[in-house]
Amino acid sequence: MAFASNEIDAENRLLHRVIETISSSLDLEVVLQQTIELVLEATRGDACFLHLWDPERSVLTLRAASEGFEDVVGTVELRPGEGVAGWVAEHREVVVIPEGKMRDPRYKYIPELRGEEFTSLLSVPLVSRSGSLVGVFNVHARDRRDFSDRDVEFLRSTSSLVAASLENANLYHALEEKEQALEDVVRRTIDAQEDERRRLATEIHDGVTQQLISVWYRLQAARRHLPGGSGRVDAELERAQTLVDSALDEARVAIHDLRPAMLDDLGLGPSIRALAPRSLAEGTEIELTVDDDISLPSHQEVALYRIAQETLSNVRRHADASCVEIALSRDGDRVSMRIADDGRGFDHSPTNATATSFGLIGISERAALLGGRLRVESAPGMGTAIEVELPIRAEDRA
After folding, report:
1. CA pair distance 222, 115, nearest whole angstrom
2. Percentage of residues in the chain with pLDDT exceeding 90?
3. Which domains are present in the chain?
4. Measured between alpha carbons, how far is residue 129 from residues 159, 161, 162, 164, 228 in Å?
5. Using CA atoms, how far apart are residues 365 and 352, in angstroms rounded to an integer?
């Protein structure tokens, strides 16, 4: 049947609005409800129901309905072959019933949908590009209607668009769930690593450190009991005490580096402020622009602290810098940390595998695990700047 030009233009405009609607939001419920309204406008129907296929339970579930039926959405379920919608889902064929639907053997009366108020019915399957059943559109009219070929074709086109949109939405949500699962694994891995660091710090403190302290006191006691004329022995004991003092200092640094208590007590900003002077060579000028009020999930705070720790260690070992700038800030759903020095710099080309670049690989991998990114700017004689940016999930922002 040839359609008039103005009818084709009107249909194209409506289809364009359907495309805009299904592309405008990731909120599936909003998209479906707006699509229902467009279908009613295009077909001049009085009620519209969208039943979506649930492959896990093998049922059609009412997921969207026109005004006046909002309360029954989610409560009506149909098996394949049950009712007109179930028959359409099973056979993947369009059904048009101008009148007498109560006498149609495929029809099932559902009180909540008030079928007695409507005379005519148009039912069209939603099938994805891969051929999978997505759902069924039902359009009802109070007065007798011979739904035209245009009505059927429009609903077919709309069904194809909605089916593709739903398939994409399902893929998007599946990807989102996998990303969430990956981040949960990363979170648990970092937590497990930090628990192990905490355990090692406790063992060093309660074991090695306490034994070193006992050795120090015994050396002190031995020196007190030396007879006169034992100057050489006393000097050796004093040197032994000095070595024990040095070992105790190293043990305390190791304990702090394994698990800085300040990170738990005061947060990321103050911890980085304390880390900088302890990690850099004496006399290095430090410029800090750190937001002390930044609050992040524990695994992200730990990751940024470890990145700062590794970066400052690299600066001390390799950069020969006189000034280091450290900035920590948060902007909406992202947190960034930048550490720049005026040191000797290095060749950051992919073919250059220096000790510094190996350290950067670890930093980059740590950032990537959290969905972040690492930017490095460096050249021989021009210093180095490292910036790490991490995303913050909506639930963590809350």
Report:
1. 101
2. 28
3. 5-178 (3.30.450.40), 261-398 (3.30.565.10)
4. 11, 10, 11, 7, 98
5. 18
